[in-house]
Amino acid sequence: MRSLVLFIALLAAGKFGYQEYVYRSALAEALINTYRQDAVVSCQKEASVRNLAIAYGAWMNPESFKLIVGHGSHEGSAADLSPSSSTPSSPYLVIVARKAPAQITCEFDIVRMSAAVYQM
What we know:
Elements: H1 2-49, H2 56-60, E1 64-69, E2 91-99, E3 102-109, E4 114-119
């Protein structure tokens, strides 16, 4: 009897985990598809302001395009990154476009609709 209850509990946990995974994947994909064009245009404009102009095609077909939630990698100080911070987290689209010999990274803040471009 115990093994049956344990088996059912494992099935329920697996079902819940899979549903959570599918929900988060679909949400991330929807956000990326919704804001992709705005991010590309903002990143291209910000890059040209900083004299890091890259072709539009490089922004449309980047090396990496992902969604992160929280502080951007180049924003704020070390004190702001503590989990006890009371400020809400913002979603960012991070685009990594290659340019020889350096890597160009753009972080597009979805809430503020602004881009920050960095050369590494």
